Request: fold
Amino acid sequence: MVSRVLSAGLRGIDGYIVTVECFLSGGLPRLDIVGLPTGAVSEAGERVRAAMKHCGFDWPVSRLTVNLAPADTKKAGTAYDLPILLSILAAAGEINALPPDAVFLGELSLTGEIRPACGVLSMALAARDAGCQSVFVPTQNAAEAAYASGITVLPVRSLGELISHLGGQAPLSPCPAPPPPVGHPNELDFRHVMGQHAVKRALEIAAAGGHNVLLSGSPGSGKSMMAKRFPTILPPLTDGERLEVIRVWSAVGLGEEAVQRAERPFRAPHHNSSANAVAGGSGAAGRLPTPGEITLAHRGVLFLDEFPEFRRDVLETLRQPMEDGRVTISRVAGQVTYPANFQLIAAMNPCKCGWYGTDRCTCSQSSVQQYLRRLSGPLLDRIDLQVAVQPVQYEALAARGKTEEESSADICARVLAARQIQYQRQGEGVCNANISPAELGTLCPLEADASRMFAAAFQRLGLTARAHDRVLRVARTIADLDGASSIEAAHLAEALQYRTLDREAAE
Reply:
């Protein structure tokens, strides 16, 4: 007898339907799982055997062949445990045939409890798109799976509970639609940053237009402090962006955490991280590459402190994702493309000792240049705002508790107003950093004096075509913050002053 149970698999962050077939035949008792299973899937047999016996079912004294179709796609993960067990029970006649429009997902414990799996939201979306009516998921994955609107999500705690539902004795209750996430008070706020108004202005521009930022300054000037507060002035996630974030985090088993978070992702890997950890790489032999830090920062912020201390190959892996908003990784096991639309906030010292430009600096001019050369020209070209952070003045620190600095909420209000202008002009969700080269001429008109200024600055600074376009996008954001329809000379001048390293190279 052959039984069929629908399940789902994960490739990258995209789900696809998997049909689990079980055939009982004569011969010595044996279980074969075919269909390109990885180690975790092949080991499912032992978990299934123990769970069946613990729950009172007899293991068939037959040769069992379980096929995971499509058979030419590698299967990874533990979500196939439950459908494999159900297919064996159905083939042995222990339970009735399963609904043809239901999908089953979940890892089994040896006692029959259903444990969470990775990528459940993407699998539920694949089931919905395939026309299925219901999906049975582990209870811990129900909150994320509920974001797949249009399909009934049924949370399951144990095998016994599922069998009772299928038999009609104790129907399961569907998971309700997810409520809007509630943001928690954030202890990080720009009102705690004393002084540094020029840097705050640059970060406001970056948040308003979705631009990348490099902060360069001596130790203790507040670079990391302000970078960690940057997410507090970003617009909240839209429903579509939240779905993308949950799918990404679910693929690495963090879906429950992503559902509970209301704010945008903020990732801050250490500077000794490898290229695979940052860009993504293979977690185990024979498996597709797993998402890296730049993918986990999708629709959020990637903060790289001590920027030049990262290995050169790590920094160079950022170039393509910063341009395209996605990263494609090829390994022996296959190729996969992950989303990586993040905002880069980088921080660095101006030299190795950190005190360049002051009497405390012990670096020679050649060592300073050597330190800066750790950042390649193509990488710096992709950073819109290069901001020099000056040391905090004593007067600003002495005023703590006496004067009120501008809060994140006040800055965010201006950011939201500027974003609204961009969305009306360019389409929902498209900020100035994403204006295509073909649209720059129409969306970023320069006034006559601004055009003359730009022509002179282009030659003096030796800007590349990419840097030219990025300066134009930043100037468009500054104009939006001012409510101006065209880019004036003052807007362009401010955008040009954020090319600090270009000016130093020109000098």
Observations:
- The chain has a mean pLDDT of 91.
- The CA atoms of residues 57 and 173 lie 25 Å apart.
